[in-house]
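Many groups now describe folds with learned vocabularies. In that spirit, our science desk offers one protein's residues alongside their backbone shape tokens.
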Amino acid sequence: MMRARAVAAEALGSLLLAACVIGSGVLASRLADGNDAVALLGNTAATAAMLYVLIVLLGPISGAHFNPAVSLVMALRRALTLNEALVFVVAQVVGCIAGTLLAHAMFDLSLLQQATTVRSGIGQALSEGVATFMLVFAILGALRWRAEAVPAVVALTIAAGYWWTASTSFANPAITIARAMSDTFAGVRPADVPGFVGAQIAGALAAASAGALLFQERTET
């Protein structure tokens, strides 16, 4: 049976990650005075830094997924049972939503919001598929070759994804759902969420296949 503290770690990590993504987006957009590039830079730095810290702190407890796409792949690799993965997913989604509310409260915003930022189109969905592929592929590669590097690998992959994908690399179904509830710099219109989530799952599955091919254990002959 899954340890309660592993589920708590996933919920707390997801909460803090979402609060950081949303909160840093709010502050960055206020300080940037209309310069979206500067705002995105601030949002990127804060998110990458928080990811690194959370993975170092909570990785030994739960694996520090904070992401249903990652938990799905770990279930496919039999590192988690299906039931354990589902419990993680619920904790991640609830945690991300709570983190969004926390960010709104910290910046004196309305707690309940609906995002209006349009992120539709093939390019946006493709970007989410690619971003999630790269994230999961990076995790699998790091686990295979240098597990102690996972925190840095994840943080750097997300930091790069903010700037080389058209969608700014959500790469996480739970954070996507939460960001639909925030009409701020980091928001995504609810109507665009299904396309994002579908692409993220597809990207994760593609990465799992690529990882199985390239990172498999070899038997000496």
